[in-house]
Structure formats: structure tokens, C-alpha cells
Amino acid sequence: MLAKPQADSESFLYLGGVEEGQFVLHALLQRGWRPRLILALNDESLTKASGGRPWVQEDWPGIPLVKVTSFMGPAGLLAMAGSGCRGALAVGISEILGKDCLNHFPLGVFGFHGSLLPELAGPAPANWAILQGLSKTGTSLLRYTEDLDGGTLVAQAECPLDDTTTVKSLYEDLSRLSAELWLTQWPRIAEGAVEHRPLGRLRLNLRRRPEDGLIQWKDQDAALLSRQIRALGDPYPGAYFWVDGRRVWVHRASRVDGPEMACARLTRVEQDGLSIALPGGTIQLADLRDDEGNSLDPVFLTPRVGSAMAALHAGRTVLAIVAHPDDEVLGLGGTLIRHFKAGDEVHVRIVCSGDPIRYAKGEQDQAADSERAAYYLGSDTKGLQFPDQRLDSGTNLGLIQAVEAEVQTLKPHIVYTHFWGDVNADHARIAEAVDVAVRPYNAPSVHRVLAFETPSSTEWTLAARSGGFHPNVFVDIHQELERKIDSMRAYASELRPYPHPRSLRSLREHAGARGSECGFQAAEDFALLRELR
Length: 533
Description:
Blueprint: E1 12-16, H1 19-30, E2 37-41, H2 43-48, E3 65-68, H3 74-83, E4 87-91, H4 99-102, E5 108-113, H5 125-131, E6 136-143, E7 152-160, H6 167-190, H7 222-232, E8 239-243, E9 246-256, E10 265-270, E11 273-278, E12 281-289, E13 317-322, H8 327-341, E14 345-350, H9 366-377, E15 380-383, H10 397-410, E16 414-418, H11 425-437, E17 448-452, E18 473-476, H12 481-489, H13 504-516, E19 523-531
Parallel strand pairs: 1-2, 1-4, 2-3, 4-5, 13-14, 13-16, 14-15, 16-17
Antiparallel strand pairs: 5-6, 6-7, 8-9, 9-12, 10-11, 11-12, 17-19, 18-19
């Protein structure tokens, strides 16, 4: 029998994504392993992928560097085909590698996931490990399948965490461990001895983006605040909070001696940072920056010493009252994300959250879907447990009272709800209930009421009574559109194939069409029903 051919390191191509890919490759080069070719994301694609330092040929002497927009695009596939490599190592990528890539390399395509899979599968595992306060995480070496994180598990290495671990230090540790793991497993990989035993599809964690770093002072304790800042600091933009419309980014946090208070309160301002007393102790915040990344002197906060942190920014309270799980995303997801990013308090109330008629009992967990969507929207989302598609079966009094109770409790400044002429009867009844609940003398806090359109409902009505939906308010959501798409992915059971209005492609096209009406790249539109100035 012929021996299996051996492979040296130059039989491998290196696919390098965000900065993590550079960390691991540096660690491998220090240990003598070098690929034949580096295929890396170009600068524009790095920006879209949440960043990192650009790939520069001077950093990799003697190794050819080819930069592409997409690994699976024509230029990427052509570079792979021309490389002559028998295997690939991919690090720091989030793009799903298709069959054209996976089948090209007889030794396979390998990569790392910064967790002990199946725990923390999906995006941002290093951030989530710190945010969740885990005592350990690790790195998993995979032979990739089209599931990306669900490939064949080759080997794992553990990494301890403590209350000083930052995402930067964790990346450094995981990069070192990943390089060591690769070199340890190299003999098996070179012999083609890794059997195909995929983990299968895993429940993926949620993405992290800069706006996820908003510090919610009302819900903070010392341990949570420390984890949030350590998880989102350098090389990420940091966690942030608002002060009178000014955004302050924070990159370092440390426990210090100081009082413990029932709610977050500013206790001291010094040139090197701020001291915040919270439940569980005092945290010092340091390395403060503005939106451009410039250092901030915290002296402007000196007059606010003694103030509750939640009182530093008077954001508006926003309430969206919708019929069904997914309506809050379809109709105004991008607008709610804009409110959240601006420091507003966003509430969503899903009226028909109980007894769905489209699914058998236990077939669909809409509450969990709504929770995942709420993460991307930045909203406090709750269901009012009315039955689906049966609001028109009796009196509207119970519905009106439920909506009034939410308005009275939350005292919103802005209320969004359905257009009353929608083809869906639940939408119409809810619009009527909101109309009653926000009467000026009944709800003096409400200064603005807007109706939104719901794709697959508003445009389908044939009723002459509706008069058609005529928007007169347009909100630019081009920076929020992909996050809106992520929130809609949480409602996978509600998605339909294109060209259905509830397909992801249709939602993008719809936003583009509304944007073209008003000079934006993407927009959501509303009918202003009342405004008090």
C-alpha cells in the first residue's frame, strides 16, 4: 500500500479576516510555520466586518499577500485555484465558505472558534465569554463544513478567565493557544487523517456591534459594568454612555475602594477617570474617548458629582404597540435601532403574543424569537398575551384598557403603531385602541403619534375605507439596515422566499425604494397622526 503523501506548511493557504487572523498568523510565524500564500480581506471589507488593522504586505515578508473583497467572490476563488495549495487555514473570518472553496482543498479547510464549542457558537465568542462572566473559555480547531461553526471538531484547548481579563488580552491568549493547537495537530492534518464528523447546526449566539456597548445605568451593578467595558474595549470601540447628548466611550474599568450604592452614582472626577458607585462596589472608568476616538478629559463632569448616572442624559421614552411578533421589525425596526443608539428608552409591546393560530403547541417559541430580535433593536419587549387573529371577535374594551395601562405606566414621549387601514384585522383594532389610549388629556406625556406600514399587510388592503397609506415622515436607516435584517433573522419561521414582502431581500429593496422617495439610501416611512409642540 502506498503511504499517504505528506504536506509541509507551504502546502497551505492562509485565509485572514479581521485582526484575530493577524494575531494567530504572527504566533504561527514565531514558531516557524508559514503558508504559501495569504488571502486576506481588503480594507473596505474589513471596515464592513467590524474592523481591525488592514493587511499590509510589509508585515509578512517573503509570503505573497492577495487582498480580496470576498473569499467566495470571483477574485478569491481564482486566487485559491491558482495557489496550488492542498489545504487552507482560515482565521478571523465570518463569511460562510461554500462548496467551491471547501471541495477545492483535498486536505480540507481548517479554522478556529474562540470558545469550547458547542458553547458560545456563533459570532463574538470572546466578547460573550467575558460578558457572561465565565471562569474559562478556549479555542476549538475545526475542519469547516458549510455550517461554519458546525464543522468537524478536531481538538480544543482551555483558557482561564478572571476579573482582569480584557478582550484584547483574551485575543492574545487565544491566538497563542490556537497556534499551539494547530502545530500539535499538524501531523494528523498533514496525513489527511481528520475524519468527517460534523457537529451539525448549532444555536448561534448574537452579533456584537458598537451600539451594543450602551451602558444601561438603571440595570448596572459593579460586576456587570466591569465585564461590559472589559469585553468591549480595545480593539473594539468600547462601551459608552450619554451625557446631555454627548457620547462618552470607555475603554478601561477597574475595581477600586469606594462606597456601594443602590443605583449607579458619580462619586469622583479626576484627570485619569471617573469613579462610579454601584450595587456591589465602586468602579473607576478610564481611557475616555469621543466619537472620533480622541481622548476626553472628564473635567466637564465635575459639576455632576453626586448625580445618579441615569440622570446624566434625558433620552426620550419610545413605545411601539404592535400586533404580532415580527411587526416591530418589519414596520419600524431601523427606526427603533436609531432611537436606541441615540440613548432613548425603547419599549415594544406585542399585543397578540399568546395562542398563535399558525403553529401547533410547542412548534414555535415566539417569545424566544422576540427576545433575540429585541437584542438587536435595543428594546424592552414584552407580550400582552392576547390571542392571535381574534381581536375582532368581541368588544375592544379589554384591548383599550391594556394599551392604556402601558401608556400610563411608561409615559412615552413618542408612540408608534399600525396603520388603521391594514388588511390584517388585528392591526386595525390595535390602531383604534391606541387612538383612544393616547387622547391628549388621557396621556399628556405623548407628544408624537405615528403610524407605520407593515410589509405584507399595509400594501395588500383593497378596502376603500383605508384611503391608502400616505407617509409624510421618512427616517434614514441606511446605517441601521443590516442590524434590522439581523433582527428579522430572529423570526426565521416568519420569513418567506423572495419575492414575498417578508423575505430579507424584499425588506432591503423596500427600504431602498422608500429611501429613493426622499433622497436616502434606505428609509422607513410613517404617517404622522399627531404632534404637540
